[in-house]
Amino acid sequence: MRRNEFRAVALAGALVAVSGLVSPRLPERRAAAAHAVSGAVLAAVTRTHLGSRPPALTRGLRTGAAAGAVVATAVAAASTVPAVRSAMAARDLPDAPARWLLARIPLGTVWAEEAAYRGALGQLGARAFGPTRGRLLQSVAFGLSHIADARAAGEPVVGTVVVTGMAGWVFALLAERSGSLIAPMLAHLAVNESGALAALAVQRHRRT
Predict the structure, then answer these.
(1) Is 201 helix (H, G, I), strand (E, B) or coil?
(2) Are 51 and 177 in contact (CB under 8 A)?
């Protein structure tokens, strides 16, 4: 195995291991900051191309906004389905929803995961294995990294890994086609924020 290939596989393994062994043990109040900082450090160490300047930034904003609008519409439509509403009503939500929406999701989840998976691992994997296999590597790692979350929430592990891995593949395509991590960040943000807002709305409605 060549050096770049070893580095890509090692990083994928490290990300999965940290998500399963370290992240669940972090205090809730410090987890978002720790994840955000680790994402920034990883992006800097691997010299990740963020695409934060025009014209890549413009393409990223346009692509991400379009994908986010589709996602938000789909979540809104799904929240009208009785089975989905029941699942949202049973979901265990944080005690501080404002902190969840404004810090934990955008910084501790979206930025941290996009910088790590689509950024550092995705770009390193593409250099080592080519675009398609590199995309597959980060998608598999992204799916496996959610095993601990699925277990904690009582959700099906296999289903969570598959769905999350597929989302990682789509996010990687958005990054590649726009040339900017802004695109998958906006799409990822739309997924998490719209789901969170829908769950909060359903539970608030049930209490009234």
Answers:
(1) helix
(2) no
What is the reported pTM? Answer: 0.94
Dist CA 57 CA 181 (whole Å): 8
Q: What are phi and psi of 155, to 5 degrees?
A: -100, 155
Closest to 114 (Cα-Cα) out of 138, 131, 96, 93: 138
* Greater model confidence, 68 or 4: 68
Q: How many domains does the chain have?
A: 1
The closest alpha carbon to 115, from 127, 107, 126, belongs to: 107
Q: Which alpha helices (DSSP H) does 91-146 contain, by range?
A: 97-99, 112-113, 122-129, 131-144
For 32-52, letters b (16+ CB in 10 Å) and e give: beebbebbbebbeebebebbe
Domain that holds residue 91: 3-207
Per-residue tokens: 115: 């910088």
In whole angstroms, what is the distance from residue 125 CA to residue 119 CA? 10
